[in-house]
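This protein record is not my work; I was only asked to verify it. Take the sequence as given and treat only the tokens as open to question. I have pasted the whole thing underneath without changing anything:
***
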Amino acid sequence: MKKILILTLAALTMSSGARAADGDVFTVNIGDSSVPKNIECKVISDADRTVEVSTCDKMIEGDLVIPETVTDGSTEYTVVGIGNSSFSSAKSITSVEIPNTVVYLGSWSFSSCESLASITIPNSVTTIGYFAFQNTALTEITIPESVTSIGAWAFTDCEFLTTVNIFTSTALRNGAFAGCTSVTTVNFLSSFVDIDFLTSSDFINLTDVNVASDNSLYSSVDGVLYNKDVTELLACPRGRTSCDIPATVTSIGSHAFSPCTRLVSVSLPDSLRNISDFAFSGCSALTSVTIPKGVTSIGYGAFCGCLENTEFKVEEGNKDFCTVDGVLYNAAKSTLLFCPGKKITCDIPETVTRIDSCAFHNCQDRKSTRLNSSH
């Protein structure tokens, strides 16, 4: 009898001191007794007392607050990650608040959460996996400064997403926002700006780009991107239909309006001196262009692809450019620079000795061009 009692006590002692193994899974209710919200947590390191959320009840619904810590029996664990596919296809979740103990969001972690309209990503997260938020109902997302790695297509096909707030260029890689065609506003909240990101073929409705006021290199005016002192226009959002350029601007940068396919009108200031290569390339809806009198340089292909353009105009007093019947030439009329896209016929003056290689690139409806013996 005494021997049996000793064995029983030993067994109880071993049981009370038993430790979970790495990889063990346990269930936690993060809701309440009336509306349970069950998630499963997988032990990442029992020694460090850390877990990740590994899966959930796919019928879970409403607002979800993931706790910083969870308890299994008498052991408390810190939640450090949201595992791969953990909430994937939980179609009734409407919002998620992630604690600042979490350092990674796994691949497909919230993909196809079709009702998920809001999520708070803390500044502790360093990694967002691929397809993490694919096909969700998010309307606005902030990528925190802590993020150093983001997987391909992390936010792809978020058709309701209208606003993107970015602290780091990491967010802009690997087609992270592919298919997000409803984005209208991009806010750069730190010292960096990625101009190529703004010309993404997916951002067809982008109308406003805003830059942090303390950015030392860039500024924004009326949603358009400029250098810090607003002397060069660097990028116009491709969803814009018009643009009034400030009187401080002396140069329009390369590809600055390319391809703003909806741009119908643009007001060029008297201060303007330079229009760079391909500045308005692909602005297929632009109907008319007036070159201010102070412009001294127009780059190669600056107006290529302006298919709806009916005429070029040059302000009186310009010493470097002129027009004849709506066609743009240099002042000496020795070089034909651009023919309007809607021009059907073109009679070229005898003074012309050179025709720019992009001169007739826009003229899909052109029926005739009359040359003279000097060409």
About this structure: The radius of gyration is 30 Å. Helices lie at 2-16, 195-198. Residues 2-16 form the longest helix (15 residues). Residues 77 and 229 are 52 Å apart (CA to CA).
